Amino acid sequence: MEIHLILIFMICAALFAAETKDLISSLIALSVAGLGLCLAFLILKAPNLAITQLVVEIIYVIILIRATIDKDLPLVRDGRWLFNTVSAMLFAIVFLSFAYFALKEIPVFGQPLMRVSNEYVTSGLEKTGSANIVSAITLNFRSFDALAEAAVLFTAIIGVLAITRKTGKIDEK
Amino acid sequence: MSLYFLCLILFCIGLYCVLRKRNIIKIIVGVGIIEYAVNLLLILIGYRQNGRAPISANDQEILNMVDPLPQAMVLTTIVIGLAVMVILVALALRIYEKHGTFDITKIRRLKG
């Protein structure tokens, strides 16, 4: 029941973030939705994720406010209001009606399929020595995923450096 | 079922923000909302009724843990989402430097 309330709260925050004119308040509303997600993770019994989400959320807000704080932001008008809104709504309705049929196929809320995870849950402690099964999975059973994640982070850093580079190609004379 | 549906409504709001808005920062906000919705959907699928957190205790046998596998995967997804967001912000700043605006319809001088 609480999770319903938090989801509705997140939807309200997301709507406000999408519709407000002021960019800074839009970013604050985005971070409100992220903190709601953090609470939802806590209720859904995922403490590791809640901690990570909290840290990442704060970094998001810092980066995004840094990107917008000293720019002059003229009001961006949206052209062809009616046509664009109606087509976006139509697309959302089609998406949700297909999702209604697709959601019947996945396991019911509260009864997960635990075919693979049963192995991890029952033998995780003896095999890895870690009491926290989630960190046992990320760092031991599936540690190549963590390795690839680190590779993605380094690639992102290289990408940011390449994008924000000031000097162009130097002419050879 | 209703929870999954609310989650997909959140996804649709993010999609609407990406498709409909003309400000680059608003588009980045929409990408963030989509990411939240997908992460939450994966965790919701792995939840067990009256489950306990997947942390074993010394003095008791815990039989009803929630599914730890989606949690481990979503942990990876959150960090990769941060990397994607950083690259998007860097691109937006670069566009602002070159064109002096965040409006995507005003960006016309693509060559050179």
Features:
heterodimer, A: 173 residues, mainly alpha, 72% helix, B: 112 residues, Helix Hairpins, 65% helix
Write the layout of secondary structure elements.
The complex is a heterodimer of chains A (173) and B (112).
Chain A: H1 2-19, H2 23-43, H3 47-68, H4 81-102, H5 117-128, H6 133-141, H7 143-163
Helix pairs in contact in A: 1-2, 2-3, 5-6, 6-7
Chain B: H1 2-20, H2 24-45, H3 68-99
Helix pairs in contact in B: 1-2, 2-3
Q: How would you characterize the overall build of this protein?
A:
The complex is a heterodimer of chains A (173) and B (112). The mean pLDDT of chain A is 86. Chain A is mostly helical. In chain A, helix 1 packs antiparallel against helix 2 and helix 6 crosses helix 7. Among the domains of chain A are: 70 residues; 49 residues, no CATH class. The longest helix of chain A is centred in the N-terminal third of the chain and has 22 residues. Chain B is an all-alpha fold and 112 residues long. Chain B has one domain: Helix Hairpins, CATH 1.10.287. The longest helix of chain B is centred in the C-terminal third of the chain and has 32 residues. The interface between A and B is large, with 83 and 78 residues.
Q: Provide the succession of SSEs of chain B.
A: HHH
Overall number of strands of chain B? 0
Q: Which structural class do you get from the secondary structure elements of chain B?
A: mainly alpha
Per DSSP, the total helix count of chain B is 3
- Report the span from N to C terminus of chain A: 71 Å
Structural class of chain A: mainly alpha
| C-alpha Rg of chain B (nearest Å) | 20 Å
What is the annotated CATH architecture of chain B?
Orthogonal Bundle
The main β sheet of chain B shows up as: none
Calculate Rg of chain A over CA atoms.
Answer: 22 Å
Q: Name the pair of protein chains with the most residues at their interface, and give those residue counts.
A: A-B, 83 and 78 residues
Helix and strand pattern of chain A: HHHHHHH
Report low-confidence residues of chain A grouped into runs of 5 or more.
none
Helix content of chain B: 55-70%
